[in-house]
Amino acid sequence: xKKPNRIFLxxxxxxxxITVLGIYGMNLVYKAVTDGAWGAGMVGAxxxxxTVGLLGTPLAYSRYVxxxxxxxx
Length: 73
Prior knowledge:
81% helix; mainly alpha; single chain; 73 residues
């Protein structure tokens, strides 16, 4: 029997924590655009990019694998 591919999908609590960090990062970016706080904006941009990478990559990969498995059937 073939073992299914192990795909890391973050648990829901970790997803919520990372999402809150992304929202905070977006708030910092918004403040940088409106108030001119560029230091905070850079921190916010890094937070936002990290959250998109941490959450988006595993979810997109799992969708890709699921699509490939359906195509093989």
